[in-house]
# Entry
Amino acid sequence: MRRLILAAAVIAPMLGHAARAEDTVKIGYIDPLSGGGASVGEGGLKTFQYLADELNAKGGILGRKVEIVPFDNKTNPQEALVQAQKAIDAGVRYITQGNGSSVGLALEDFVTKYNTRNPGKEVLYFNYAAVDPAMTNEKCSYWHFRWDASSDIKMEALTNYIKDVASIKKVYLINQDYSFGQSVRSDARKMLTAKRPDVQIVGDELHPLLKVTDFSPYIAKIKASGADSVITGNWGQDIALLLKAAADAGLKVNWYTYYAGGAGGPTAIKQTGLDHQVFQLTEGFANSGHQPAMDYEKAFRAKVNMSLWYPRAVNEMRMFKAAAEKANSVEPVKVAAALEDLKFEVLDGGTGFMRKDDHQFFQPIYISSFGKLAANEPFDEENTGWGWHLVSKVDTPQAMVTTTCKMTRP
Amino acid sequence: MLELIVISTLNGVLFGMLLFLLSSGLTVIFSMMGVLNFAHASFYMLGAFFGFQLTKWIGFWPAFVLAPLLVGAIGMAVERYGLRNTHKHGHVAELLLTFGLAFAIEEIVAMIWGRSPVDYRVPALLDFPAFTIFSTNYPAYKIFMLAVSVVIFVALLLVLRRTRVGLIVQAALTHPHMVGHLGHNVGRVFMVVFGVGSALAGLAGVIAGPALVTQSDMAAALGPILFVVIVFGGLGSLPGAFVASLVIGLVQTFAVALNGSLASVFGPLDSAGGPSALSDIWNVTIAQVAPIIPYLLLVIILIVRPMGLMGTRES
# Structure
């Protein structure tokens, strides 16, 4: 009798657990929650939890509750795989990750292999920020979907903008010396030469990742080159210190950046006093002028106490819901099929679509500059009193690139 | 060419002095106590965050005085209640203690101030270009940093070499029992030395915080280069650390200015082979590897002259 009670005590919670698991859609959030990347990772987690709460308040996905389960990968590919396995063991069928293309590539490969070995238990990988073009080209996978614009898409959008700005004549490239920085650099060279052959590339610098404390010597070189614009993919302290050194030396150029808006970036720009000289490329931003997005931003800030860094995360979760409803199932295989070529009205206005060939989402890209706010721009960043201001909107057709992806379909 | 040389020299000296500012406290602690303090960069970070917080409450200049004192007090507490107990177990135990302390401090800072960078600004009084040369501005704040470094160097040298205090401190390292018998409290000497070393780190933090990025991983980012400076200069040698800081600052700055690569010296490789590991190495410019050069110097100096540039002992 005692044994029976014991067995029941052990089994009953498991049954209960299984029953509950049926009602929830678990999304494993695998990103850094400790170490150097933690500030960004924590911001992402809060964003996804907000999105899940929002979906749940409206009845979840097909009546099921959405739950975000955080896993700390310490921005380390090896650790990310361990965490992915842990997530799967905990009943997760959807994982989402964004920080670090090296981590992203490892996860993409892991998910592909896992799904081959475990038919019927497929796992999907939703990528909201890893932008290495390889992930939707030579290394592409059917089980991976990317909502962020890859680095070559952003460069395509940026160069389509630069094409029409005659005042840009001499461009300097400075990037971090690793796969992402190198792809920014080679894309910039290739696309600028094709679209604006008259633009001179007066410098092309690679510096070690997150190792430079003093950028003054680099600024001296930029100054000596006579550049009027700098293109950089730098992020984190590499963009903050670069801009600080530029402001200290009194360098007057325009900065076209990928990540000046990242955590700490706005604070650094405000410190430099570079008013509307720093530009960034995003799929949306607080002062975009699109009313639903601005209302959303307001509600988000009021509750989470940070700006919405990832409008693409909103697109990701909403499209997930749309695809599940289209397939009338939360089974990953069916959701994946429904996501292909799905058209979607993005948060900041305009239509995007998930291309079937490579599972890359194409969407309008905004170029905005950071500085003093106009009357109709209510949102500042990091309490600086400065915010992003619309410079140009590059529509979806102008923000598309070709792919070499040949994916294996199930 | 002249412009490049002048600007690079200036930048190199300014950066070198920043490095000295950061490593002076580490050298003091090491040369006077023989403790290789792994938590030094963490004290530097504490200085920056205390500076930031006090600046918000009472202004930069009071913070400039108070924050190093606070960090010094914490340093003294660490020595009195931590290091003194581990001392009898040898240097490895001390090293491990400071190693663990570094992690603890980082987590505490992250808990209090969060992991994002804080908005710590240059004081308005020093927020103007001091002079302009070849149309490049040199901010007054950088000149201030340089001046503070030089003052610290001269003051430390005078105290250690020319005063009775310096004599006692130096004697306490090599002959603690004799110094004790002469009526000096050796324990307290060590405590004060550690406190001063930590206070110097704190001072470096208060000053470097606005110039660099003040965030919870700043200690980890800067720690390694400080060890390069003191090992290169000679473990425990103050003038050595001064010279090493300047050399590293200048070498790194000039390296960035150079675009030469193996390819530009020996001509490009046969491109028919396509990109390979060899062609990658062949085309790397000196500028690209500039920030790594100090570590290369470290390895070379350890092989050629293990006691460092001006060191007097090997460990």
User: Anything to note?
Assistant: Chain B touches chain A through 48 residues (CB under 8 Å). The mean pLDDT of chain B is 86. The two ends of chain B are 43 Å apart (CA to CA).
